[in-house]
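Practice problem 4.
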């Protein structure tokens, strides 16, 4: 019952754009351009498309229109804090398919790739059962979740690889304003990079947490952990 692709595929993973006044559009465009230059078969985006404002949704749509291949997204906590339906509308207008506790299958050359999209767990919108209900068996499957810790649950549902964001590589900029005041950021088990493994004889899977592109709350990304990232 192993789910192997007949040949490798290339996935471009972008996350945490936080489109708005804090992160310049030239940075956003450069990230998309860099991702597309790697000639990916599919582009996935794992949430936090805005900061706290709906004023830049047209910019978000313009940005998404640059992606000229199949692209799929899940929402993050900032999207729900701002206006989830408006963010989804802006993404859809830009040609992105938003997976809200849902899954879909695409064909890449001779293979099928199944994408499972989990809505944001930070704001309690994640529904693993709904997202995985009716999943195809024996098809290579990739999970998308803004919060990486949800990978623990997705692995149990036979989703071996999960892509996530949210942590900004461990930056304090992921905090809510109340957390900044308290000088306390909720701890994460998976902060940045690759965790787990793809040996399906073991009960675990793998999760990759990207540092993402934008900044929220404060306009800074400091030190080694603060580097922007396009993951391939």
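Answer key:
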């Amino acid at each position: 019952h192993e789910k192997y692709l007949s040949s490798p595929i290339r996935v471009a993973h972008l996350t945490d754009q936080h489109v708005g006044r804090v992160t310049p559009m030239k940075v956003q465009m450069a990230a998309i351009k860099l991702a597309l230059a790697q000639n990916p078969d599919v582009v996935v985006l794992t949430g936090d498309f805005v900061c706290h404002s709906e004023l830049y949704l047209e910019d978000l749509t313009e940005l998404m229109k640059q992606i000229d291949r199949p692209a799929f997204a899940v929402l993050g906590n900032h999207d729900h804090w701002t206006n989830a339906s408006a963010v989804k509308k802006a993404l859809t207008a830009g040609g992105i398919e938003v997976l809200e506790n849902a899954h879909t299958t695409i064909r890449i050359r001779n293979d099928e790739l199944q994408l499972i999209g989990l809505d944001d767990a930070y704001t309690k919108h994640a529904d693993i059962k709904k997202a995985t209900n009716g999943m195809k068996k024996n098809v290579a499957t990739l999970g998308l979740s803004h919060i990486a810790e949800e990978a623990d649950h997705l692995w149990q549902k036979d989703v071996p690889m999960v892509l996530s964001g949210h942590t900004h590589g461990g930056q304090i900029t992921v905090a809510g304003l109340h957390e900044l005041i308290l000088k306390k950021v909720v701890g994460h088990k998976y902060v940045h990079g690759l965790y787990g493994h793809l040996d399906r004889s073991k009960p675990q899977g793998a999760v990759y947490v990207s540092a993402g592109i934008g900044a929220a709350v404060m306009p800074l990304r400091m030190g080694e952990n603060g580097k922007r990232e396009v993951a391939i």
